[in-house]
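Blinded run. Sample ID left blank on purpose so nobody reads anything into the name before looking at the predicted structure. Input follows.
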Amino acid sequence: LLEKEIRYLGNAIHNPQRPFMVILGGAKVSDKIAVIENLLPKADAILIGGGMSYTFLKAQGKPIGNSKLEKDKIDLAKGILDKAEAFKKEILLPIDHLVVDSIAPNAKIDIVGENIPEGKLAVDIGPKTIALFKEKLKSAQTIVWNGPLGIFEMQPFSKGTEEVAKFISDLKATTIIGGGDTAAAVAKFKLEDRMSHISTGGGASLEFLEGK
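Blinded prediction complete.
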């Protein structure tokens, strides 16, 4: 397992088949900063969803309502977006959102565009973002995915993560799934045997992607 982990993750970092795309999600920007900084020069595109995307959207000056925000990371997110521009690398952020008043399985769901209204919080990427991400990923030869794109544990908020997972499982690309929540999501959607590699390294695989 360790050898397989190093082979897949090592190839992705040092010698990926291109286009090489990275999908990042999960709750916090702070968990993924080092991964973004290490992979930005190497990846052809980085697609960002999940809770961490709202700090990036806030950094772009977009209203995010009551969505998850790491206030102390706004400048950092801005710096990453500037760096991507300097490297001429694409960072794709959500262009529409599934929003609710409060996080509950029976919450009333609305779909809104880029701007999240006051009082609403985003819980998943919307249909236009799903389409945008699929369009981008369809040419990929190597995909590394770490972090879900919404609160996939609750059925109504799992569509973004599920659709993207199903889509990449049908590609002829090398698909590398980071452990933890992303592996749990892929297992929930019964797609484990259709991915090239599902990391069991947990935090260690994340550190490896950070270049440690």
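Unblinding after everyone has recorded impressions. The beta strands are 20-24, 45-48, 90-92, 97-100, 110-112, 121-125, 142-146, 174-177, 197-198.
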